[in-house]
């Protein structure tokens, strides 16, 4: 009797979990589905090889019932440029600071660094854009620039990498470290050749998640990189990015179709990175 | 120490007035003096928290990696003060095996065995390396089990096999002394007895210091035994004498299971 009641309760609970999961996941599924439907028809060869069209070309094409010509090459190259430069700084620096925090967990100075990192992680991205604006746009490149954009992305990536590095290293048993020390291995070599390889999947996961976090950032780039109708690889010139293009397309009634395809592109990119990260983390 | 601790001729390790404290004025072991005989198994027994690990970890200066730990006293290896040796010199001569198996997870079985050389940048010809790996794995009776999987990571090995791999890693340096801190406490009885047999064989070539909770184990395989209590070395002698005729009341109580 009691057993029956319990199994009924179990089933009810299971049912509720399934229902709520569906409720949570449905909007996401709908969005992805919607993106696919609206975005897929603009995704073709020129989408990746041509720069964004001007509003006139787009309007003409629409009036003739054709798809909009051009693509988002300037956005893709800009995103690539700025995320690469940001990674070049944020990944090694983040790893180093993470290792430092792990090594000096107890020290007061480490606590301060950890707090600053937490504050940065919690700060709205537009504020980080403002910081980069005042540091770099105003004082270094004297104008909007890819460098300023990279700086704002760097500040966003750093706390994520710092935290994941520290947490990953903390999960490695101390006895692994002591095994190295008991062989007379110098400390820095233990970090480089034992701890980092041991935590490799955790470290890469953290980096990939940080990357996917900044790939879609718009707000800080509006204040720093501004945008550029052409492909630009010059670090001190204004530069476009995929999310910046989406924002521009949004403000132009003739470009609506491109919003969907660009968003689809970004979502797939970010989802892929996340999936890779999951795969690595599972190892 | 007022009681005479047995005299050992030509000890390989000579420990003099050793004290270890983790916090100021609180001694985990206090004023321990003891000599350890070559090519024998010396067991360290005592209830939890009595300072067994603190003592054995002093013997290869593991404590100095933690700046808050203070050690006093002197330890001589073959009459050389170990505080005068470099880390690598010392740890090539005194190897250590830990309570739970800790092979390097990112390395293959082969690299684990040779890790002491590799991580220290000690270069060797491939043939020489192969020899060292083979001999060390044979010494721990693991060779036939893993010789076809040398370049795989060791995570498929059982706990007992992993622990033998860790012993092989320590043996690769051909040390004078091997310190083992409860090496079998995380293992099943079959793996435990394999490790015990192994240690008995190894004492022909090496001097073995073994911390153990397991009195039966000490009785089975050790030649000399120490009994520690609350950071003090209470009794030390031939294992047979200690078990059949303990001179201190605390040793007797521990051995008869009254505490610990
Ligand atoms: N890292 C540490 N920090 C502070 N105190 C410690 C530390 N390690 C050990 N101690 C203390 O030192 C004393 C001796 O500890 P030790 O680990 O040497 O005992 P043990 O005989 O090895 O015990 P067990 O059988 O449980 O391993 C204990 O009182 C313990 O609480
Ligand atoms: Mg212990």
Number of helices of chain B: 10
What amount of the residues of chain A lies in strands?
under 5%
Number of strands of chain A: 0
Q: Termini separation of chain A (Å)?
A: 45 Å
Could you give a short description of this structure?
The complex is a heterodimer of chains A (283) and B (260). Chain A is mainly alpha-helical and 283 residues long.
Present the secondary structure layout.
The complex is a heterodimer of chains A (about 280) and B (about 260).
Chain A: H1 2-39, H2 45-49, H3 55-63, H4 73-103, H5 108-122, H6 125-137, H7 146-171, H8 174-181, H9 187-198, H10 200-215, H11 219-222, H12 242-250, H13 256-282
Chain B: E1 13-23, E2 26-36, E3 41-45, H1 52-58, E4 70-77, E5 80-81, H2 87-93, E6 94-97, H3 109-119, H4 126-139, H5 143-146, H6 159-171, E7 177-181, H7 189-202, E8 207-211, H8 215-221, E9 224-229, E10 232-238, H9 239-244, H10 249-255
Parallel strand pairs in B: 3-8, 3-9, 6-7, 7-8
Antiparallel strand pairs in B: 1-2, 1-4, 4-5, 9-10
Helix pairs in contact in B: 3-6, 4-6, 6-7
Bound molecules: adenosine-5'-triphosphate (ATP) and magnesium ion.
Question: How would you describe the overall organization of this protein?
Answer:
The complex is a heterodimer of chains A (283) and B (260). Chain A folds into two domains: 2-63; 76-282, MetI-like (MetI-like fold). Helix content of chain A is 75%, strand content 0%. Chain A is built from 13 helices and no strands. The longest helix of chain A is centred in the first third of the chain and has 38 residues, at 2-39. With 260 residues, chain B is α/β, with parallel strands linked by helices. In chain B, 47% of the residues are buried. The model of chain B has no long low-confidence stretch (mean pLDDT 94). Chain B has a six-stranded mixed β-sheet with strand order 6-7-8-3-9-10, sandwiched between helices. In chain B, strands 2-1-4-5 form a four-stranded antiparallel β-sheet. The interface between A and B is medium-sized, with 19 and 29 residues. Residues 52-53, 181 of chain B line the site of magnesium ion.
């Amino acid at each position: 009797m009691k057993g029956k009641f319990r199994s009924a309760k179990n089933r009810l609970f299971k049912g509720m979990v399934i229902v709520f999961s569906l409720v949570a996941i449905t909007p996401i599924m709908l969005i992805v589905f919607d993106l696919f439907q609206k975005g897929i028809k603009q995704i073709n060869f020129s989408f990746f090889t041509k720069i964004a069209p001007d509003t006139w070309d787009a309007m003409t094409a629409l009036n003739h019932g054709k798809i909009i010509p051009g693509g988002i090459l300037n956005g893709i190259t800009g995103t690539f440029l700025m995320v690469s430069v940001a990674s070049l700084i944020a990944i090694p620096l983040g790893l180093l600071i993470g290792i430092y925090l792990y090594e000096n967990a107890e020290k007061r100075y480490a606590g301060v660094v950890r707090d600053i990192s937490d504050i940065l992680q919690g700060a709205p991205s537009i504020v980080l854009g403002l910081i980069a604006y005042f540091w770099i746009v105003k004082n270094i490149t004297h104008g909007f620039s890819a460098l300023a954009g990279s700086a704002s992305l760097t500040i966003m990536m750093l706390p994520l990498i710092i935290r994941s590095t520290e947490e990953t290293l903390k999960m490695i048993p101390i006895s692994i470290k002591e095994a190295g020390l008991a062989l007379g291995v110098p400390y820095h070599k233990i970090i480089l050749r034992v701890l980092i390889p041991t935590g490799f999947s955790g470290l890469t996961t953290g980096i990939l998640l940080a990357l996917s976090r900044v790939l879609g950032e718009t707000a800080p780039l509006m204040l720093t990189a501004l945008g550029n109708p052409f492909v630009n690889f010059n670090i001190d010139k204004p530069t476009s990015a995929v999310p910046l293009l989406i924002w521009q397309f949004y403000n132009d009634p003739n470009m609506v179709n491109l919003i969907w395809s660009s968003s689809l592109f970004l979502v797939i990119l970010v989802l892929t990175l996340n999936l890779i990260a999951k795969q690595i983390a599972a190892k | 120490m007022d009681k005479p601790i047995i005299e050992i001729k030509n000890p390989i390790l000579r420990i003099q007035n050793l004290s270890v404290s983790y916090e100021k004025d609180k001694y985990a072991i206090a004023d321990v003096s003891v000599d350890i005989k070559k090519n024998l198994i010396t067991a360290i027994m005592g209830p939890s928290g009595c300072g067994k690990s603190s003592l054995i970890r002093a013997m290869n200066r593991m404590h100095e990696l933690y700046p808050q730990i203070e050690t006093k006293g002197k330890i001589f290896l073959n009459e050389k003060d170990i505080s005068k040796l470099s880390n690598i010199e010392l740890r090539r001569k005194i190897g250590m095996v830990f309570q739970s198996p800790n092979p390097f997870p990112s390395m293959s079985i082969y690299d684990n065995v040779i890790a002491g050389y590799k991580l220290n940048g000690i270069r060797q010809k491939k043939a020489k390396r192969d020899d060292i790996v083979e001999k060390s794995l044979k010494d721990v009776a693991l060779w036939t089990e893993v010789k076809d999987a040398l370049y795989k990571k060791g995570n498929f090995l059982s706990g007992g096999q992993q622990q033998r791999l860790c012993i092989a890693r320590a043996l690769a340096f051909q040390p004078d002394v091997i310190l083992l801190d409860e090496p079998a406490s995380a293992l099943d009885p079959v793996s435990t007895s394999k490790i015990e047999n192994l240690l008995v064989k190894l004492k022909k070539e090496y001097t073995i210091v073994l911390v153990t909770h397991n009195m039966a184990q000490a009785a089975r395989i050790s030649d000399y035994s120490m009994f520690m209590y609350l950071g003090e070395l209470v009794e030390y002698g031939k294992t047979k004498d200690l078990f059949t005729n303990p001179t201190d009341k605390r040793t007797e109580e521990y051995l008869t299971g009254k505490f610990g």
